[in-house]
Amino acid sequence: MLTMGCAALALMAAAPAPRDGAAPAAASAQAEDPDLIPRDLLFGNPKQAQGRISPDGKYISWLAPVDGVLNVFVAPADDPSAARAVTNETVRSISAHYWTPGGGHILYPQDSGGNENFHIHSVDVETGADIDLTPVDDSVRATIESVSKARPGAILIGLNDRNPQLFDLYEVDLTTGERTLVLENPGFGQWVIDNDLKPRFAIRQMPGGGSALFRPDDAGEWQPVAEIDADSFFNTAPLGFNRANDTLYWVDSRGRDKAALVAMDADTLETSVIAESDKADIQNAVLDPVTYEPIAYGVNYLKNEWTPLTEDAAADLDFLKARLSGEISFVATTDDGTKSVVVASSAQAPSVYYVYDRAAQSLTRMFESRPELEAYALQPMHPVVIPASDGEELVSYLTLPAGADADGDGTPEKAMPLVLFVHGGPWARDSYGYSSAHQWLANRGYAVLSVNFRGSTGFGKEFVNIAAGEWSGAMHQDLIDAVDWAIEGGVTTPDEVAIMGGSYGGYATLVGLTFTPDRFACGVDIVGPSNLATLMKSFPPYWRPLLEGTFFKHIGDPDDPADLEEMMAQSPISRVDAITKPLLIGQGANDPRVAQAESDQIVEAMKEKDLPVTYLLYPDEGHGFARSENSLSFFGVAEGFLSQCLGGEYQPIGDDFEGSSIQVVEGAEYVPGLPEAVAAHAANTAEE
């Protein structure tokens, strides 16, 4: 089995009194509780991550920290103990790395302070030479468009240096960094590249929604040849060509609700269905290393399930399922297909990487990403289907504290505080598996519930599109319905529910405290928008091609008076007066998706009305917290905040601010231990 194609798209004063019935914060602190999982084991850097094997099978690679910063390590495949770091990042961890065809180089993207204007680096594995293939201004974003076995010394890169809204195509030499313009972008949002690094198709978002597929005619002029209607946009996308470049594989929901795996003749455009499911979209496909044809596909409803398309793939899956527990993922393979890196994971076991030798029928363990967690009792995650008030099915995931569920059926023996943890996107989904957030909160004594509200992807196009215009409407009602389900089922009580999330989940938190203020005891907002109109106007220029279709359809056009009125009616900033419960906000100063102004404006509005808010700002972060020091500081504050709100256990902040850029802009007095941590951090920083 080979590669996996994946379908697209946070002054000393008296703290407020605890909630009625909650243990006082000081009594909740557990500095030496042996059952309390240290936060650094959950939110700090993994020991190792992202295991890979080189295309020629000679090397294995992974990410691991060097002085607290994740870098790429490479070792001979037969001698992992000889590993050496081949990158030298000292400030911001590397988030991803890729082997080039042939195995001579490793590629990795890196931005500055979370601004998402990535540069693409190439590292020569033998010499260690690190070349920035895109030595452009930091206002320019680079994308890896394609690499190919047929062109092992080159890479196709997209750059928006000429027009910030559009990515032109450049071919770059991996060794010298020499860059050659291949094609100026005439207005496309996505390229479809074949195995010769040739742009064969392009996709343009259309006004009013949907998109059009283009290809060049004999004269080189790009002509529209097919449409992707607005309703099918979110779960229709190309996966890639077969080896002969005459068939393009797609996940495609045109003419159906759930995305199917289809093959399209690259000449006639005729399509045939390879596989489909009536439960959920097909989102993942495993491709043969020689032919690049799909040999297995994945469907994720409650959990991901693989279905083989060939006898060899069936044998591989049978072998792996018999020896590995939890869910299996395929992350890398050699060019000849004889060896693959597979990952086994479950809610109670973070990712374990193996090298699978097909010929020898053997598994060799590479590493476990967070081995220190083996010393602690992680909790199972229960998939549940919650009925929405209008009959829609909400695939959700519930995690309970240790000892709360004696018979293991997902129902606690008694009601307990609950944290509703809302995913971002909103065009994404929650899935079964290991979650640092779920394990952290359950370990502190909370039930944790994550809900795939309408608008979440993976469950068919109808489920996505019934969310259009419903950001504070039916999408939020789904979350309220899930809370009601938890109350009625004895999981929690009406006065013991907090809401928390990032990005759209942050927006949902703000909506929860403004539109339904009596339903939540407190909220934690991580990089969430407070004003839909200013959100839309602050998106980076390269998002512009998406706005007129996708965003305008689902949120509205801020330049249209009627839309603007509705957008403001759905914006938490318009309902600040309704807030009565504590709020914690975390924001990255360089966030290109949800600008700092989104947090600044609601904090300012709350200050004007003397409403309690704690605001944490990170000057070296973007859309979320990439640096482990910042993650630790944020979740340390969040833990104390939730303990004050819901009465759960907490590990004191301690030295979790060390190395962090955290700025407590407002409201330190509302979180136990925070004023002292701020003072200590300031003193330590001054000494340095």
TrEMBL record:
Signal peptide, first to last residue: 1-22
Keyword Nuclease: no
A Pfam family annotated for this UniProt entry: Peptidase_S9
GO molecular function: serine-type endopeptidase activity
GO BP, sorted A to Z: proteolysis
Segments forming domain Peptidase S9 prolyl oligopeptidase catalytic: 434-648
Keyword Signal: yes
Keywords carried by this UniProt record: Hydrolase, Signal
InterPro entries found in the cross-reference section: 6-blade_b-propeller_TolB-like, AB_hydrolase_fold, Peptidase_S9_cat
Protein's recorded name: S9 family peptidase
